[in-house]
Each structure stands twice: as structure tokens, then as C-alpha cells.
Amino acid sequence: MKKVYFLKTCNTCTRIINDINWPSGFEFQDIKQDPITVKQVEAMHKLSGSYEALFSKRAKLYKEMDLKNANLSEADFKQYIIEHYTFLSRPVVIFNDQIFIGNSKKTIENLKTALSE
Predict the structure, then answer these.
(1) For residues 16 and 108, is the Cβ–Cβ distance under 8 A?
(2) Signed CA dihedral, 1, 39, 109, 29: sign only
(3) Which CATH number does the domain housing residue 105 bear?
(4) What is the reported pTM?
(5) For an engineered disulfide with 80, which of 69, 87, 89, 92 has Cβ 3.0 to 4.6 Å away?
(6) Rounded to whole angstroms, what are the CA distances from 33 to 11, 29, 36, 50?
């Protein structure tokens, strides 16, 4: 599978997408315009091993809902990601059987390395 889950209105996502030389066959899904499905979140979980790893604690709603003071379970993380796109740490890139979550420098470097092999 070659897929990128991103948010078109996110400048960081746009910069990363424009900065990478994508091999052919990649599918790009704007998660605001085309919401992620339960099946897609479960597939991401299978690769990442954790819903918390997919969850963005930098989301505005995370602070507004005071979730940092809540004792969230894996089921809670999954539910929040499914309910609102802002809780997915972006971008999420699935390349073959690898998953790259978020926009940290190390993650993007690892992604670029994987794509060039």
C-alpha cells in the first residue's frame, strides 16, 4: 500500500508533501474532505501497534477538551481519531508494510530513506 493521510489546510503537511519525491502509485487522502474510516484507522493501528501513537496531543481540541487530564485508554484514542480528523497525528504515510506518523525531522528522514531504497 502507498498512501498519505494529510490535511490540505495544514502548512506543515503541504510543505512535507511538496518536499518529497514520491514514487508513482501513491494515493493522497485529505482527511478533512474525505474522512478516515474505522477500517483505515484499524489498518494504521496494525502497523503502528498503538492508537496513542496515531493520536495528536498537539491538537487544539485536545487542549480545549482538557484531555491531558483524562486517563485515556487505547479505545478512547481510537474513538477520538475516528470522531474528528484533528486528532490524527499528520501526515501518516503508509509505504508497503511501514508506517510513518507525524512530522518530526527523524520521521521525515526515515520516510525519505525508505522511499529511496
Answers:
(1) yes
(2) positive
(3) 3.40.30.10
(4) 0.94
(5) 87
(6) 16, 8, 9, 25
